[in-house]
Structures are given as C-alpha cells and as structure tokens.
Q: What sequence folds into this?
C-alpha cells in the first residue's frame, strides 16, 4: 500500500518534470532558431523597411556596377523601367478597383517589390531610359537612378540599425528582480 | 526569494508565447522541487546568454555607427 503510494508520487513527480522539460524544449526549439529570431525582428516595421532598403541597395549597387559595361546597361535599365511600370500600373489598377471609402493611405501593391527605385518617379526613370537609348547605352543612367534611390534607402537602413539597437539594449538590461531570480539558480553551473 | 517565486519571475522575463507562459505558470504549483530547479537553471542560463548576445549586438552597432560618423 505504502509502496504503491510512493510509486504514484514518483510517477507524478516524473511526469511533472517531463512536462516542464517538454514545455521548455518547445520554447528553446522556437527561440534558438536564428531564422525565427530574425523573423521576430522583421515584424518590426522600421526593421522590415530597413531590410528591404538593404536588399534594394545591394541590387542597385550590383546593377550600377553592371551599367558601367557597355551592352549590359541598356538591358538592365530597360528591364528595371519595365518592372517599375508594371508595379505602378498594378498599384493604379488596384487603387481604381477599391471603392473610395475603403481606400487607405498605406495601401501598396504586392508587385511593388519589383520596383528597385520606388522613390524615383516613373517619368524620371523614363527620361533616363530615353537618354540611355539616345546614347546607345554609353551613359550610365541606371547607376544615376540607383544613386537617387540610395539617397532615400541609406537613412532607412540606419533607422533600422537604431531600432535593432533599441531592441537589443532592452534585452541586454537585466532588471534587479530578474537578476535576483537568476542568482537563486546560479549555483546550478550557469555558464555564459 | 524562494525558487518557485524566482522561476515565476524568470518565466515572465523570457520571451515566451503567451500560451506557453500561461501553461508554465499554471503548472508551477504542481512541479516538484527538482523540476523547479532544473527549469529555473535553464531559464536563468537562457536569460543570461540572451543579455550577453544582446550586449554584443549593441556594441557591434555602436562600433558601426562610430565608424560611419568618423
């Protein structure tokens, strides 16, 4: 009788431990994964905008380098302008389809990602395109357009860095209450 | 601070999904002492490491910004 009770208590303790470890394992599996951690950061609008700006800057820099070679500049400028046109057309069509009362200021088209120079006006792009065609691809107009976009994107990247710093600084600070709690378990071989 | 209270503070302090946090806090009274100590030690280690990694990220960004300003 006593033995059964003891066994029952042991099993209950064992189950409790297993449940705790399972809960902790699921938490570790989720948060130790770098991609998921990045996703947590990317949920922040400033960081997300900065990440897009970084990607755009890299692509624009690559295209600007390519533009220095005659023969590559014209197709790259042409394709970038066509993608910009498609993105703008999609945005306009979407805007026309949505009833006036449902229109919101921040509404964007999914095809907007195709536009590598969203802060450069379409007519400016078309002007650059015309100049590039007139010069038979000798004028590096794609580089100029990329530079105009970088002027807008670089501040976005810095804003994202500042936001990451804010989040990291908050995580780096351990409040006295939490530090006291950590100290309670510090005898259990806490290593950094 | 007793280990159960300390564990509760740590559960509140680490990044957990609200449901996970609620489940862990609800299960806290039923946990035996060994489980409390084991989970507490793991969470303490996690929070300390997280602070350490975050501090390195802050230092790296500070260096980057200082280099940009120089």
A:
């Amino acid at each position: 009788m006593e033995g059964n009770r003891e066994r029952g208590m042991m099993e209950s303790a064992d189950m409790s431990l297993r449940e705790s470890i399972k809960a902790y394992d699921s938490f570790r599996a989720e948060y130790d994964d770098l991609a998921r951690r990045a996703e947590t950061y990317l949920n922040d609008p400033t960081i997300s905008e900065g990440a897009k700006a970084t990607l755009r800057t890299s692509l624009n820099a690559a295209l600007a380098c390519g533009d220095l070679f005659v023969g590559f500049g014209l197709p790259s400028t042409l394709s970038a302008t066509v993608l910009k046109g498609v993105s703008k057309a999609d945005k306009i069509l979407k805007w026309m389809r949505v009833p006036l009362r449902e229109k919101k200021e921040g509404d964007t088209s999914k095809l907007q990602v195709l536009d590598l120079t969203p802060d450069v006006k379409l007519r400016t792009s078309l002007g650059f395109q015309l100049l590039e065609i007139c010069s038979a691809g000798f004028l590096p107009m794609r580089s100029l357009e990329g530079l105009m976009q970088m002027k807008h994107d670089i501040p976005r990247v810095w804003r994202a860095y500042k936001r990451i710093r804010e989040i990291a600084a908050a995580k780096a600070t351990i409040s006295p209450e939490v530090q006291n709690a950590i100290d309670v378990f510090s005898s259990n071989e806490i290593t950094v | 601070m007793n280990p159960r209270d300390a564990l509760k503070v740590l559960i509140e302090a680490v990044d957990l999904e609200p449901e996970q946090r609620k489940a862990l806090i609800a299960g806290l009274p039923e946990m035996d002492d060994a489980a409390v100590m084991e989970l507490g030690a793991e969470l303490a280690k996690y929070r300390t490491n997280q602070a350490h990694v975050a501090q390195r990220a802050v230092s790296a960004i500070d260096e980057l910004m200082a280099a940009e300003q120089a």
About this structure: The first helix of chain B runs from residue 3 to 13.
